[in-house]
Design a protein that fits this description.
The chain is an alpha+beta fold. It contains 11 helices and 6 strands. Strand 5 and strand 6 form a beta hairpin. Helix 5 packs antiparallel against helix 6.
């Protein structure tokens, strides 16, 4: 077993090295699709916002969020924007559902990395406005987009390198610090432990007490999910270890946090689909304890086990 794992690990490291030295490099990191719903807005505001989806999409796909050239494929992601209200011709509130994925090595399939429902976004937008990135000042529209771009890239990097997303999470944290000192409302401030806010998510990601989770998350993807077709036994051991790590952490830290909820919202379906192959009922009982909001999904598997 140990020799098999080392062989697979060597093959995966060679594959990653080939990606890093590949001549295919991109200045931008994201392949983002933006979808907008204006139904709650007056006709005048809908007219003002004509082309808004394309403006945001161009910003996400043409802005460079890392100083280095991006190696490998761009990260597929989607931002669904639901406008909630308009208090004037320029002031808006909206709900954004941010989704990102990552390809599973040697397959045509993708793994869900992020599914966030952010319903407290307030910003200013004028007809025909162009978007420009300015990392030194807070701007409620572009800073929001910069924040989620860094979160998306950070989660992606964490799945390929142990704690690889740290530089991007730090950039996102700098944004929430700028936002909180600006006095601008809408999800930038810290809230109760389990309530979603941008500050809570990135604060959890950078908190040392969640380091074991992030380390296990890397192994779940790179040494587990990515080698499932090559060696199911090794892959499932690595993937199950993430759940065991969370169970061990549960005795020391509160898992009822934004980070852990965000993880399970993105992953509960995938966890169910893959870990059912372990035929380990204890694993799914543990999942029910640490992720009660998706207990019915885990019960579906338990009910089919002998």
């Amino acid at each position: 077993m140990k020799k098999t794992f080392l062989l697979l690990l060597s093959q995966r490291l060679i594959s990653l090295w080939l990606i890093l030295i590949s001549p295919i490099h991109f200045a931008q990191e994201l392949d983002c699709k933006v979808i907008v719903n204006y139904e709650n807005l007056p006709v005048l505001n809908r007219e003002i916002l004509a082309g808004f989806a394309q403006v945001v999409e161009d910003y996400m796909n043409m802005t460079r969020f890392d100083e280095k050239d991006w190696a490998g494929p761009k990260i597929p992601c989607t931002i669904n924007i639901f406008f909630l209200s308009a208090s004037s011709e320029v002031n808006y509130t909206a709900q954004a559902v941010v989704i990102s994925q990552r390809p599973i090595y040697n397959t045509i399939n993708f793994s869900s990395m992020l599914t966030v429902n952010d319903n407290t976004w307030s910003f200013i937008y004028e007809r025909g406005q162009s978007l420009y990135s300015n990392r030194s000042t807070f701007e409620p529209l572009t800073s929001f987009l910069d924040y989620y771009a860094n979160i998306i890239i950070g989660f992606d990097m964490d799945s390929y390198f142990e704690l690889g997303g740290a530089p991007f999470f730090s950039k996102a944290f700098n944004i929430v610090n700028l936002a909180s000192s600006s006095g601008f409302p809408g999800g930038w401030q810290t809230t109760s432990l389990s309530t979603y806010s941008r500050w809570n998510l990135v604060s959890d990601l950078l908190n040392e007490k969640y380091r074991p989770f992030r380390e296990a998350l890397y192994n779940y993807h790179y040494n587990g999910l990515d080698i499932f077709l090559e060696n199911k036994t090794v892959a499932l051991d690595q993937m199950a270890n993430l759940i065991k790590t969370l169970e061990e952490m549960r005795a020391k830290v509160d898992l009822n946090t934004v980070l852990i909820k965000t993880f399970f919202d993105a992953k509960y379906g995938e966890l169910t689909d893959f870990l059912r192959h372990t035929n380990n009922s204890d694993l799914f009982k543990t999942l029910k304890r640490i992720d009660p909001s998706h207990a019915s999904k885990y019960d579906e598997v338990l009910n089919k086990m002998p």
